[in-house]
Design a protein that fits this description.
Order of helices and strands: EEHHHHHEHEHEHHEHEH
CATH topology of the largest domain: Rossmann fold
Number of domains: 2
CATH class of the largest domain: Alpha Beta
Radius of gyration: 17 Å
Number of strands: 7
Number of helices: 11
Strand order of the largest sheet: 5-4-1-6-7
Shape: globular
Distance between the termini: 12 Å
Strand content: 5-15%
Structural class: alpha/beta
Length: 191
């Protein structure tokens, strides 16, 4: 018997990957710190909590970058950076799903469902807990509790996987088995 009855997995940085070279290219071409501005908690958290739309978040990025057409174009290009599914991770999670529920737990914006559809992941997980839909974001304990409830198991019977250590520590504080994801081998070893 395993030490868990459900797998709770982050999306971005684990199952979904982004083209970071394209992000760096955008910053270099425009001479603007697009990524650090976009990820500034004062700008991203309202979108992550569902208080504003992704379009409004992108406008706030453009404003923070200077508010001119050049800044708006950089923000638009940032939003269009290609992303894809890590097929090795998908395979591992699908294998786990043969034994236990797999729940995606993600800090996301209102476009998550459209992105999951583009990725072919709409029906992949047993449930999706999106911060923009539940109004709390990792590492808030409540999002982990919601995910465990969706899985139908107590938190201490959940394996939680995330590429951000603070999110893993938040899950561990609730008694979850936490895996700090740095590569596919981390997930393979945990499963």
């Amino acid at each position: 018997m395993t030490g868990y009855d459900a797998v709770l997995s982050d999306l971005d940085g684990v199952l979904r990957l982004f083209d970071h070279s394209r992000q760096r290219d955008i910053e270099a071409r425009y001479g603007l710190p697009v990524l650090s501005v976009a990820l500034d908690p004062t700008l991203i958290m309202p979108a992550t909590l569902g208080h504003i739309t992704e379009a409004q978040w992108l406008e706030s990025i453009a404003e923070a970058l200077g508010g001119d057409e050049r800044a708006r174009q950089a923000a638009r290009e940032f939003a269009e950076v290609p992303f894809w599914v890590d097929e090795d991770v998908r395979t591992l999670l699908a294998g786990a799903q043969e034994r236990v529920p797999v729940i995606l737990v993600t800090n996301a914006t209102d476009t998550l469902e459209a992105h999951l559809d583009l990725l072919g992941l709409t029906y992949f997980a047993d449930a999706v807990v999106s911060s923009a839909r539940v109004g709390v974001a990792k590492p808030d304990p409540r999002i982990y509790e919601i995910a465990a409830e969706q899985a139908g198991v107590p938190p201490e019977r959940c394996l939680f996987v995330d590429d951000r250590l603070e999110n893993v520590e938040g899950a561990r504080a609730l008694g979850m088995i936490g895996v700090h994801y740095t590569c596919v081998a981390d997930l393979a070893a945990a499963l």
